[in-house]
Structure formats: C-alpha cells, structure tokens
Design goal:
This protein is 11% helix and 47% strand. The chain is built from 16 helices and 52 strands. 52% of the residues are buried.
C-alpha cells in the first residue's frame, strides 16, 4: 500500500480510523477493502467508526524508536507500560496496559491473530504477550483500538486491542543499521540493524514472499553511575535515601550495632562503604560515651537501571494466488530476547527467608566464639553477653545477625524469552462470501538462569560454624562454605502454547437506504496450555534467599470454543449501525456471551458522531485456577501497624513482609461494560479534530488484595487483618493473598486528537499532530464490598499510579530531501501518599512527583539515491526522569519510575537505510 494525499488522510480521520496517520491506495485508484482492527468485515477503511490510533512505519522510523515498547509509550491510552525490560530485574518482559486495566485486559495480535502469552506465570499475575517477541523489522503499521472488543475477539480485549500488521506485497530490499549512545553515561548504548527482502508482485506474478530480520543490542547501565536515588534530600527534605537494614558489612540484631560503622572495629571488619551504605545513629551505648551506629544498605546503588540485552527476530510471510478468487498464505516467525539483569546482592536475615512450619522466622545466628565475632569492640562499647546472646544450644552461645552478600556479587537473572509462531491459511470468495480461515500455532518459551543467590538451609548452617564472616571479607574456608550454599545455573524452563483454528466469512445480505448490509460470521477453536516447570527443586521451594519466593510447577490446559457474528446496517447515507456478539465456551469455568452495538452518524462531510456500547469479560489465567500455593513478598517495605509493644524501631516492623499466594478453581470470570461516544470535526480543509469519551466498569475483578495494598490502606488492614499471620513473638509471619473475585472498578476519561497540515510554499510542508488522554475517574474497590478508592493522579501503595493526563505532540516538516520531526511525550505527575513516602524515605508526608516531559528530534536526508540518513536525539533537552519515593513502579530500582520514563537522559542516535532493489 502507498501513502495517499493529505485529503484522503483527512477523510480517513473523519471516519475515525486514524488519530495519528492514514493509509490507503494511491490517488485515483479504487480504495481497497481491508479488515480494520475491531471488526471482522472487509470494508473501505474510511467507512469505519472506531477509535483507532495508527502508527505507520514512517512515523516509527522518525520517532527513533528501536522496539515496540518505545512506540507504544506514545499511545496516550497506555497508562504506564508494564515493563521488566527497562531495568535489571524481573523476567525481562514488556506488556501493553490500556486504560490502566493491566496487561491481562489488553489483547495483542499479530496480523489479527493471537500470540502465546509469556510462560512464567503466577497466581494473580499477568499472563500476557511479551512485546519483545513482535518482529520489529516486519511491521508496516500498528493499529491500537481504544475500545473494548470482547464481542469480536473474546477475552483480553476489555481495555483495547493492539494489532501489529506486517508489510504486504513488499517486493523491495532494505538494509538498516542503527547506533545510539547516551550523552552522559557509559552504559545504556544501543546498536543494531534490520533487513527486509521481498520478491514477487501478487497481482502480476501470483505470489509475494517477505523475509525480515532484526537485531538490537543494549549494554547495561549501572544505577550507581546515575545515582537517581541521591535526589531524595532535595526532593523530600529530611529524608534518608531508600535503604535496607540488611547491609554489608552486617549488624548485630539484638543491639542494632554494625562493627563497620566504627573506627578501628577490629581485624577482618570492613568499613561501611559510602557508595553502598549510610550510617544510622541511635541512642547511646552502655559505656555512655558512644552511640549505637549501624550501616544501612543503599540497595538501589547495587543494581542495574538497564540490563544487558539482545533482541533478535526473523519473520517470513508468503502469499500465493491459486485462482483469481483464492489464495493461501503462511507466516512464520521466531523472536528471541536474551537479557542479563542484576539486582542488589542477597539480603540476609531471618525475615528474608521462608517461614518455618511453626509460623516463625528462622534464626540467622553465628557463634560468639567465632574469630569473626567483634567482642573487643562490644567490650569497648560497654555491651555484655546478656545484651547480644540470642540463643544457647548445646552449650554454644549464638548472636543473631543481618547482612548482605556483597562479596558474592549481585543477584543475576539471565533470561531467555522466545516466541515461535506458524500460521497457515487461505482466503477465497464464493457465492458472494469472503472466506478466511487459518490454523495458528504459537509457543512462548522461557528459560531462567541464576547466579549470586544463596540457599537458606546451607547458608544458615555455614554461618553457625563460625567460619563465615558477615562483617567483612571471608578467607578460603569461608568462601568454600558459601560456594557450597549457592544457587547457580538453570532454575526454570517453561513454555506456553496456543493452538487456534479459525474461520470467518462475510458478505452483503441486502440493501437499506444507505447501501448494502454486510454480515460476518465466524468460529474459533482454541487450546491453551501452560507448562511452567522449575528445574531446580530448591528454587521451586523458594529456598533461595531474596528471590521471588516459591515457584511450584504448574501444568494446565483449557479448550475454548467461540462463535461470533457482526452485522453492518446502513439505514441511510448518514446513519450506520453495527451489531456484534460473541459466545465463548471455556472447558474449565463455563460460558460467556457478549454483545456490542456501534453507531455512526455523519450528517455532513465536516462532521461525524460515533458511539459504541458493549460488554466484556476476562477469564482467569491457568495459574489463577490451577497453581499450587506459593510464596513471595511485598514489593515495597511496609509498616506493621500492630507491631509488638516496645518494638516500634525493630526492622521486623518495617520491612518487605512474606506473602502467601493461593489459587481458586471456582473463581468466576470478571465482567465489564464499556461505553464510548465521540465527535470528529473538520472545520476547514486540512484541520481535523476529534474527541472521544470512554467509560469502563468492571465487576467481580480477578485479582489479589496484595500485601502492599493491605498494609498501606488502614481500612483494608482492619477489614482483612485476619489474613496477617504472626509469629509467637507478635511479628508478622506472612500475609495471605488468595486470588478472588474482588469488587468493582469504574474508570472514564476523554481522548483528544488534533491534526493539521499546510503548505509553506517554497519552504515545503508542515504537519502537526496532537493526541491526549485525560483520565477523569479511576475508582477501585480493593476488596468485595469495600469503599471505592480514587487512584487518579495518586500512588497509595500496592497499585501503580494512574496519571491524570498524558499527551503526544508531533511536528513534521518536509522540504525537498530533508525532513525534521520534533515530538513531545508528556505524562502528568502524581502524588505519592505519606505512607508510601514514609516506608521508603522515612518522612511521613506526601510527595508530588514531577511531570515527565521529553522532546525527541530527528533530521532525515534522502538526497542520495536509495539511501536515507537520520540523525536524532531522544530527550534532546536532557531532562532527568522524575524522582519517586516508591521502588515498585516497574523499575525495581529507586529514584525513578521505570514504567513511565527511560532512566537515561539525552540519547544521540544515527540511522542509515539503503534500498538495494
């Protein structure tokens, strides 16, 4: 397909297809009938009435984006990407998140058909398509439907649909190389390239074959190189940096003293490193002249803000004409994302470990007879055995300690995520019906290797020998003991498989005053399988300290049969009504029926009104229904409101608490109702305005009352405090978080779009596009029957913030062989509650996160035959990512929100593309 004139682009916009670009046949030719995302009927794109945002390949190239996640951050209906690919922890996945409803409520398609979700699942977690698996070099355009579409596609389409459409009838060759380097950091560099080769003209030769390949490599960016967490004092006066009591060198828990915090602490004692720790001063020691001092770990200084990663993909598509009305096609793709992420070294103390059968934490103790025990220092400070002896067993005296395994290096997660996909199908026209059918096989594979982790029981036993030093470097004997306690190698190898057979048929069935009615009927047969298999028994049990908890084997499957239909009724030239409905039958929880109605009224060429209403649903994941009980911990440190008397200063009352997850085979699907209404207006030539109101209501939400949410909101804590289990000493042992049907969610807002283009005479042509989303309501019940909580522009702990406003503003100036593209991507800041700030920075006051505003600039030149050169800068004004107190907005680091902003400042890049055919 080719670009049409600006006039045709504006016509498409008035019909509601595009909010950023329009595509059709070259001028004067018959407009092609196509299937637009959100419909099953082939029609001229300008006839549709759906709120669809389109990114063309030309726009993607001008933006400087190097992967799918970069592009979708520009969709204002995305309320924060759910991403592990922008930092050094997690499973290196990236998920779409329309309307802030979560990855499970956004459907991702490739050429209108499903891919497999990532195979690493958890109870209540996201099981969604990893955007890194999309073949980036093959993309022709991206269509983002900003409306629910369960009546067309089934589950996952409540918040919207993202459809990646590959190049069609491509018969050229193109080689592209890319390089990008941050202005101020050694890490975070990018380089890569892509190749696209097509042959055959479908109309003339009867076939077309496309092959693409892409590679992108990124180097790690260490958090210490940027130090975004050090901004705490300037942003939140009186605060401490985000720290943990589990620090290296270690501390004696009973007296709250770290030997490394003192001068001359004794042999084999390391000093508190100012790069990784801060010294906290408490009350006086028993000698009356010294203060109790201890090291606190700046955990954010010991991880990566960006990981090492290599993304590769290969895609092939062939289309072959069998007769004038019949063709068959195949698609095959392999995507691979290999990421090496680094988190802070393992935190070591009893509360970082598995709770015992009696509900108590294990005792992490060392004998005071150890040569590493700082007796001389403690004598000097006036402490006696009565102060620090925690346990006596078989005549051996022990003291409880906490430390961090800095000498073992960071916790390393080596992730390999792969997506394999093969589609074989055919299209034909017979007896007035357009028929399309295919078999789609997609499989996602995940492999995880660990390094730098210690196992609970071997480590505790090694510490009890007295030959392991928690306060400084270890000798050969200590190193050997720690080597024997490590968890290293492959720990998880899983796969998720989706097999779908589908058939769709559409035709004209009669005529109304506005033209022919069109009917589409279809059926799908689908099988989903999950094989989430830990390969290491200790990993599966959660015996690794500072890991994600227990990871039980989950092997499950389900069958889904679906029937759907769609009818377009043009009652007049101005009024068109579309009705759609879908029935889905699930083998493991029942049936669901979802209708939808769309109306378009266009009284003149300058004005169009549109509206839609429908219902939707989301099925529970296979993990929600089948997974055994597992354990993890809260994302952020939380404060225990019922801390035992006299223990308010104990680290056990302000920490990441253990959490127990459990599935429910009887859980119901969540239901939703969606409504949209919009207006499109062309007041003058080359000026298009649109405004769409959207409203989504969910009930019986599938989810968890997370440990973070329960502890951060006093009302929830009082209601569900029976789920907070305690040790015999009154400290929190773990928090029960069963998956369940929660309360309701009510969210609404407005999408804005303004586009114009005009000639500048001898100075070329200038285009302007503006897209914005304002969230008016995001009211959530975190539990069944609980009060609604407003999350718009707020971070209250447990749930990610919902920005009130996001926009993308783009200027495109073309003159001869030159093109200049300038773009602003903006997210309004939010308010972090006093509880969030207090648990992370020690100040009981709210904090207003600043706006995220980044300008991107690109200059392109096409004056050399077959060659296009681009020089640009992402974040050209060199803005820092806004500071945040919380560490759980997708970054797993502290000091910035990885779901909303790249941690890097200005990034220069260059691209060269050569057409060789």
């Amino acid at each position: 397909m080719h670009h049409r004139t600006t006039r045709l682009a504006l016509a498409l916009a008035c019909a509601g297809l595009c909010s950023q670009a329009a595509w059709a046949q070259a001028g004067g030719q018959q407009l092609e009938r196509v299937v637009v995302t959100g419909s099953s009927i082939k029609r001229i794109a300008a006839e549709t009435a759906m709120p669809v945002t389109v990114f063309t390949r030309d726009q993607i190239e001008k933006s400087g984006a190097t992967n799918v996640e970069d592009v979708l951050r520009r969709v204002t209906a995305m309320s924060g990407m759910l991403s592990d690919s922008t930092q050094g922890a997690g499973y290196a996945t990236s998920n779409a998140n329309m309307r802030g409803l979560g990855a499970n409520s956004t459907l991702v398609l490739l050429n209108g058909r499903r891919l497999a979700g990532h195979p690493f699942g958890s109870i209540g977690g996201s099981v969604a398509v990893d955007l890194n698996s999309i073949p980036f070099a093959a993309i022709d355009r991206i269509e983002v439907l900003r409306d629910g579409a369960s009546a067309v596609y089934g589950a996952d389409a409540v918040g919207g649909v993202v459809n990646f459409i590959t190049r069609r009838d491509y018969n050229r060759g193109e080689l592209t190389v890319r390089y990008a380097e941050p202005d101020e950091t050694k890490g975070g560099k990018e380089h890569g390239g892509s190749l696209a080769f097509g042959m055959g003209d479908y109309s003339a030769d009867g076939y077309n074959l496309l092959i693409t390949a892409n590679i992108k490599e990124q180097t790690r960016l260490e958090a210490a190189e940027q130090g975004w967490y050090w901004r705490h004092e300037a942003e939140v006066p009186g605060s401490i940096p985000p720290t943990s009591f589990r620090a290296y060198p270690g501390r004696l828990m009973d007296i709250g003293v770290s030997p490394g915090a003192y001068a001359n602490p004794g042999a084999n004692m390391a000093a508190c490193d100012p790069a990784n720790t801060v010294i906290q001063v408490a009350g006086p020691t028993p000698n009356g002249s010294d203060n109790a001092k201890r090291c606190r770990a700046i955990y954010a200084a010991m991880l990566d803000n960006l990981p090492d990663s290599t993304k590769t993909d290969i895609f092939a598509r062939g289309t072959f004409k069998l007769s004038p009305d019949t063709s068959w096609f195949f698609e095959g793709s392999i995507g691979r994302n290999h990421t090496t992420g680094r988190a802070a070294p393992s935190p070591l103390d009893g509360t970082a470990m598995k709770v015992g059968a009696d509900g108590n934490y294990p005792r992490m103790v060392m004998p005071i007879s150890s040569r590493y025990f700082p007796k001389a220092l403690l004598d000097r400070l006036g402490y006696t055995e009565a102060d620090y002896v925690s346990l006596v067993e078989n005549g051996v005296k022990y003291t409880e300690v906490a430390t961090r395994s800095l000498d073992r290096g960071p916790r390393v997660s080596d992730n390999t995520n792969e997506q394999y996909r093969l589609v074989v199908g055919a299209s034909t026209s017979a007896a007035g019906w357009d028929v399309d059918t295919a078999i789609n096989y997609a499989q996602a594979r995940g492999s995880l290797d660990y390094e730098g982790y210690l196992l609970q029981e071997p480590y505790l036993a090694a510490l009890r020998t007295g030959n392991v030093n928690p306060f400084g470097p270890n000798d050969a004997a200590g190193v050997a003991l720690l080597d024997g306690a490590q968890l290293k190698g492959n720990v998880r190898k899983s796969k998720a498989t989706t097999l779908v057979a589908d058939i769709k048929a559409s035709r004209e069935i009669g005529t109304l005053d506005g033209g022919p009615m069109q009917l589409a009927l279809g059926a799908d047969l689908r099988r989903d399988e999950a094989e989430d298999r830990p390969t290491n028994i200790e990993y599966s049990k959660g015996s690794h300290i500072g890991g994600e908890g227990s990871v039980p084997k989950t092997v499950a499957s389900r069958n889904v049969v679906a029937f759907h239909g769609e009818l377009v009724m043009p009652f007049s030239k101005a009024l068109e009504v579309t009705a759609a409905a879908r029935f889905d039958g699930y083998s493991d929880f029942g049936n669901t029926f979802n209708p939808m109605l769309r109306v378009k009224y266009q009284p003149s060429k300058q004005l169009a009104l549109r509206a839609s209403a429908g219902t939707g649903f989301r099925a529970p994941t296979l993990w929600d229904v089948n997974s055994p009980v597992s354990n993890t911990n809260t994302a952020d440190p939380q404060v225990d409101p019922d801390c035992p008397a006299g223990q308010a200063d104990s680290p056990l009352c302000n920490t990441q608490f253990n959490v127990q997850l459990s599935s429910d085979p009887n859980i119901k699907p969540e239901k939703s109702r969606q409504f949209t209404a919009g207006i499109l207006f062309e007041p003058m030539r080359d000026v298009v305005l649109s405004l769409d109101y959207w409203n989504i209501q969910k009930r019986d939400q599938i989810g968890l009352i997370s440990g973070d949410t329960l502890m951060a909101e006093p009302g929830l804590y009082q209601r569900y405090k029976s789920r907070v289990k305690r040790t015999s000493g009154g400290f929190i042992s773990y928090i029960e978080t069963p998956v369940e049907n929660l309360g309701e969610l009510k969210t609404s807002g407005i999408d804005f779009d303004v586009r114009t283009s005009f000639g500048l005479g001898g100075m070329g042509k200038l285009g302007l596009q503006f897209s914005g989303t304002r969230v008016m309501k995001y009211d959530l019940q975190n539990g069944k029957g609980t009060p609604f909580t407003d999350y718009v522009g707020k971070s209250l702990g447990g749930n990610a913030p919902v920005p009130e406003w996001q926009h993308t503003l783009a200027f495109d100036w073309e003159m001869g062989s030159f093109n200049v593209a300038l773009e602003n991507v903006f997210t309004k800041g939010w308010t972090e509650s006093a509880a969030v700030v207090n648990t992370n920075l020690g100040v009981d006051a709210p904090y207003n996160v600043k706006d995220t505003s980044r300008w991107n600039l690109a200059l392109s030149y096409k004056g050399i035959k077959n060659l296009k050169l681009t020089l640009g800068a992402r974040n050209v004004t060199n803005e820092e990512p806004p500071f945040v107190a919380s560490s759980s907005y997708g970054s797993h680091a502290a000091g910035f929100a990885g779901s909303f902003a790249d941690p890097r400042t200005r990034i220069w890049y260059a691209t060269a593309s050569y057409r060789f055919k």
